[in-house]
Specification:
By secondary structure, the chain is of the alpha/beta class. It contains 21 helices and 15 strands. Helix 18 runs parallel beside helix 21. It binds one RNA strand through helix 2, strand 9, strand 10, strand 15 and helix 17.
Length: 572
RNA sequence: GCGCCCGUAGCUCAAUGGAUAGAGCGGCGGCCUUCUAAGCCGUUGAUACAGGUUCGAAUCCUGUCGGGCGCGCCA
């Protein structure tokens, strides 16, 4: 594994040539020309360098072309237009990727270990309800990114921050109570404002009753529950539940939080997403880490008291305003816990702390960065990538998503309707930082709207060819370029050679969608090859080369699908 | 009002400051007596608007218009 492909070697020698001219090559030196007729690769480096070097771009291009033309993989390097250099690979260099893919197998494209440790947090949805389709986007992007970073050589640990304490879990406990009181089965008592209304609470309550067949809970004081649906509604309900339930309150909360956490974990597993660690906010709190973090901020002189509360001077570190750590009533804020969480992350030796935040949390980034820096950590290690919302559409109608009201489009429903692979592919088709319209009805009804079938079908077709041939791929001789010189083969080879750059770019820019779009292009190239070149029925001499090309493409499709957490069926 | 993200084909999305802005779906027209027609081939059709930066702008800057999200001693 991990020996750099043709593209990487060429880019490095180009970078060396640029450095030789006394300039910084930067990233993305080599590109692929839109028009394949210009060659395999191209670079506009000379145009970029012209200004800093104060030279004629064409003169620079001539020098670069000369250097590149001397490269063993390059057949020709020509200067074109204002200063582009177009490269044409030797047939052998173009085909080398076929043997490389077959030799590498499932680790095709895997890059050398970078030595970098990455901690990647994503989803981290509150354990108060099932995941909806918005969480699905974060799950698909985050898990794919983890796989991509690993393939690109990083050591990645994924993590889910579980908010298993605080007011919302009090409300959750209260909601369980209201659904679990004996004798209420069958009755549809309207729940008070603030309670979690979703049907899933009935299931959790039913499970709780099965677990505690003889358990008695006090009858809720239903008449007390007439209050407006405002900010305080949840707190009022929690207070009553705590009062009425006494010791049972804690047990109910523990049960509810664990049930919801397990439910979420199960849903994610069904989506092919598994976390390395579930980080409990509750454990963080009981360990005293939050107080310790606050104390450290205080020792640094970053905390002051005002109106009975403790404030962190986040504005001194670029935030819009200062933030409360400890409220006047003595309670810690959510923010305080998050500061401690990030301090904990910082102590675990990762080189990069990556977190995917929903767009509704983007305002949180400056204060977290501020606290991180104030605690003496290097803010350059922090990276927050924002995942924009998914607007769920069904045949043109927008579907509202609200956990508390219990009306939302569930991720589980989506997966049940179109399958995990189709859902994952659909999610990662778009960049994370753009808004996305997800038309469920359409994705469910016309499966061709999702490219997963196009890609998987290409894989299955390749498998079918190899099965029909019946031989062993490992025994194929090295692919002979002489038999892969046609236009259709060239398209496939071009995409195969583009896998490694795509993977690296996706990792570097945290853009899983690049892999999805590359897969579509590779699948298209194979479909075209399949429909125009008789693989098994063509001339005998070229058979091994054609089979090797198909086998390599099948392998590359499987690798790319795996990066996105999707399967590669051998039959469809 | 202020801040962040965004505006590309009828729809959903691509495009590292580069060369003629690409796919899929939809529409229209072709291709199964040969390896899976969940496919292939052709065609239709777009950078919200106005300035600016430069050899070159969908991409960077300013403004306008439109959309999403946020702006609490909630979580």
């Amino acid at each position: 594994m991990a020996s750099p492909g043709t593209f990487a070697r060429l880019e490095e020698s180009l970078a060396a040539a640029v450095r030789g001219q006394g300039a910084d090559p930067g990233a993305g030196l080599l590109e692929r020309p839109k028009d394949a007729g210009r060659g395999d690769y191209a670079t506009g480096a000379a145009l970029r360098l012209a200004k800093t070097l104060k030279q004629n771009p064409r003169a620079i291009a001539e020098e670069l072309a000369e250097t590149l033309a001397a490269h063993e993989d390059v057949e020709a390097a020509e200067v074109a237009g204002p200063g582009f250099v177009n490269l044409r690979l030797t047939p052998a260099a173009r085909c080398a990727v076929v043997d490389a893919a077959l030799a590498a197998g499932d680790s095709f494209g895997t890059q050398e270990a970078s030595g970098r440790k990455v901690l990647l947090e994503f989803v981290s949805s509150n354990p108060t309800g099932p995941l909806h389709v918005g969480h699905g986007r974060a799950a698909a992007l985050g898990d794919s990114l983890a796989r991509i970073l690993r393939a690109a050589g990083d050591q990645v640990a994924t993590e889910y921050y579980l908010n298993d304490r605080g007011l919302q879990t009090d409300v959750l406990a209260a909601s369980l109570w209201l659904r679990a009181v004996p004798g209420l089965q069958g009755e549809e008592k309207p729940l008070p404002a603030g309670a979690y209304q979703g049907d899933y609470m009935k299931e959790v309550a039913a499970a709780w009753r099965r677990r505690h067949p003889g358990g008695t809970l006090p009858e809720p004081p239903w008449l007390e529950f007439a209050w407006p649906d405002d900010r305080e509604a949840g707190a009022r309900l929690a207070e009553i539940a705590r009062r009425e339930l006494g010791e049972d309150f804690e047990a109910l909360r523990k049960y509810a939080v664990e049930a919801l956490g397990a439910m979420i974990e199960t849903e994610l597993r069904g989506f092919n997403v598994a976390f390395d660690r579930w980080f409990s906010e509750r454990e963080l709190a009981t360990s005293g880490a939050i107080e310790a973090a606050i104390k450290k901020l205080e020792e640094g002189g970053h905390v002051y008291e005002k109106d009975g509360a403790k404030w962190f001077r986040s504005a001194a570190f670029g935030d819009d305003k200062d933030r409360v750590l400890v409220r006047a009533n003595g309670e810690l804020t959510y923010f305080a816990a998050d500061v401690a969480y990030h301090a904990d992350k910082a102590g675990r030796g990762a080189d990069l702390l990556l977190a995917l935040f929903g767009a509704d949390h983007h305002g949180y980034v400056p204060r977290l960065r501020a606290a991180f820096e104030a605690l003496g950590h290097d803010p350059a290690k922090l990276e927050f990538d924002i995942i924009q919302f998914v607007a769920l559409v069904n045949a043109g109608d927008r579907i509202k998503m609200s956990t508390r009201a219990g009306s939302f489009a569930l991720l589980a429903d989506l997966i049940a309707a179109i399958g995990p692979d189709a859902a994952r592919l659909h999610y990662v088709l778009a960049r994370g930082d753009v808004h996305m319209d997800f038309d469920v009805g359409r994705a469910a009804s016309r499966s061709n709207d999702n490219p997963v079938h196009y890609i998987q079908y290409a894989h299955a077709r390749g498998c079918s060819l190899l099965a029909k041939w019946g031989g062993r791929v490992e025994e194929l001789p090295a692919a002979d370029p002489a038999h892969l010189g046609d236009e259709r083969a060239a398209k496939v080879l071009a995409e195969l050679n583009w896998y490694e750059p795509t993977l690296r770019q996706a990792a570097r820019q945290r853009e899983p969608h690049r892999v999805a779009h590359w897969l579509i292009a590779l699948a298209g190239a194979l479909h075209g090859y399949y429909d125009h070149v008789p693989v098994l029925g063509g001339d005998e001499a070229g058979l091994p080369a054609r089979l090797a090309l198909v086998a390599a493409t099948r392998q590359a499709l499987a690798c790319g699908l795996a990066l996105l957490g999707a399967g590669a069926p051998t039959k469809m």
